[in-house]
Design goal:
With 478 residues, this protein is mainly α. It has 21 helices and 2 strands.
Length: 478
């Protein structure tokens, strides 16, 4: 009963945030253009009523959040908000599976879509769709922690939401941590809007695409995605902001507040991430030029933009990835498993985990060659503890297991191996576009396959353990 009350209280500000920053702007925009959406209106009114009810009943009640509460609250929040978010798509004529897929893809900042002719949908719905990614990028639970004062044990909920935000880069006070993140996220969005607008986008285009750029989402208001603009300045701006959003926000915050870049230079994960991106870009450019026969200019343009977009798990495209041959798309999809940095809004396994795995591996090789040598793997000049190694190896093993399970489900649904691999990788890494028959959109999948990939998106967004622990019987007994 106590856990239920905690969940109901957490849902109050969560649905209020969703209705205020996602549904309300789209509702107002539609009303101004004489296209008032009754479903969005109902969502706003219903969310306001529920939030007021929670405020007058549970606001003053003190709760202590345990790790058990954190995982359950986080999972239920994401599923519940996804169901609500799917309603405007459903009443536009999409099936339930299509609507749920699109809503989950937006909120988890995956960027996969089932829509085929995006321009045919009303502008207010396209704005709503982009705002889903902006709201999901910062994390629903983090927003709640910024709103609810003095949440006892709230750090457990924050850690269940995503790894990396509860980092020493931020203030040790939970509410200040959440507010610092929200403030920087909002500032980065505003700067991105003005940059796009200055490069030639209309204000509507600039705003909508900044929402999906800063959140590393990948949605666009055009079927051709970023290929619609055919503008190198816009592509360069997108590349810069994709990289910024894929880096640890704690490093950004510290560097801005202290006025120095030394925090970047002292962070091993940041340096590893840059090396991975530069290596992937170099390989892509050379492959496109030598193997695919592109001109050096086109190789540079497509190699940089598409590689950064996929490796940072954003998912913007200049054209369907199938048009880049077979080597480059598959290569950057594999690199995308590494993912963005911890404390960012990106997906994937996160760069720090892969770096730790590599350092432990090379340390073990050194010990094999020199049995008497005293060698310790380090991260940021600190010795990696056995518990950290165990956690990373467990995470990667379970990550691969989940990936294989979801992929085999797609194959069982008669999706070819290449498309199944890419679709599952895109979903669990919160990446977006697929390959093969899923290169342009996911409309060809069966309803069950769409629900499967939507589940993979949530699993990837909550980084596995937040979902896996709910499947353990002991969790419910204790």
């Amino acid at each position: 009963m106590n856990t239920t009350l905690k969940l109901l209280r957490f849902l109050g500000p969560t649905v209020l945030f969703f209705s205020t920053f996602v549904a309300l702007p789209a509702l107002v925009f539609g009303a101004i253009n004489n296209n008032l959406d009754q479903i969005l209106l109902n969502i706003c009114v219903g969310s306001l009523f529920y939030s007021l009810l929670i405020m007058f009943t549970l606001r003053r009640k003190k709760f202590s959040y345990t790790p058990r509460d954190g995982f359950l609250i986080t999972f239920v929040c994401w599923v519940f908000i996804s169901l609500i978010a799917s309603l405007p798509f459903y009443y536009q004529g999409l099936s339930f599976s299509d609507s749920f897929f699109e809503a989950v893809s937006g909120l988890t900042t995956t960027g996969s879509t089932v829509l085929q002719n995006i321009e045919s949908y009303p502008d207010y719905l396209l704005l709503y769709r982009q705002l889903l990614q902006w709201a999901g990028g910062v994390g629903l639970v983090i927003v709640v922690l910024a709103i609810i004062p003095a949440v006892s044990g709230g750090m457990k909920v924050l850690q269940a939401e995503t790894s990396g935000f509860a980092d020493k880069s931020f203030s040790p006070r939970l509410r200040e941590t959440a507010r610092s993140l929200l403030g920087f996220y909002f500032l980065l969005t505003v700067v991105c809007v003005f940059a796009y607008w200055a490069a030639g986008m209309t204000l509507f285009e600039a705003a909508t695409h900044s929402f999906s750029t800063v959140s590393i989402g990948g949605f666009s208001i055009y079927t051709d995605n970023f290929g619609h603009f055919n503008n190198q300045a816009i592509e360069s701006i997108a590349t810069i902001f994709m990289l910024l959003s894929a880096m640890n926000f704690g490093l950004h915050f510290l560097s801005l507040s202290k006025g120095t870049i030394k925090y970047y230079l002292q962070n091993d994960e940041f340096k590893f991430f840059l090396v991975v991106v530069l290596f992937a870009v170099l390989v892509s450019v050379i492959t496109l030029n030598v193997k695919e026969g592109m001109s050096f200019y086109d190789s540079l343009r497509f190699g940089i933009f598409q590689t950064v977009s996929i490796v940072t798990t954003t998912g913007f495209t200049l054209e369907p990835l199938n048009n880049l041959g077979t080597v480059v798309p598959l290569f950057i999809f594999i690199i995308a498993f590494i993912g963005a940095c911890s404390g960012s809004v990106g997906g994937g396994m996160k760069a720090w985990r892969v770096l730790m795995l590599l350092r432990v591996g090379f340390t073990n090789i050194t010990k094999l060659m020199h049995p008497n040598a005293v060698a310790h793997a380090k991260m940021n000049n600190e010795k990696i503890q056995p518990s950290q190694i165990e956690a990373v190896f467990s995470f990667i093993a379970i990550y691969i297991t989940f990936f294989l399970i979801f992929m085999f489900v797609l194959i069982f649904q008669n999706v070819d191996f290449y498309s199944s691999f890419a679709g599952t990788a895109a979903a669990i890494n919160n990446l977006g576009p697929g390959l093969g028959e899923l290169s342009e959109n996911y409309s060809s999948l069966s309803n069950f396959s769409k629900i499967t990939l939507a589940s993979a998106m949530i699993v990837g967004r909550l980084e596995l353990f937040g979902v896996l622990i709910l499947l353990v019987p002991a969790y419910w007994r204790s």
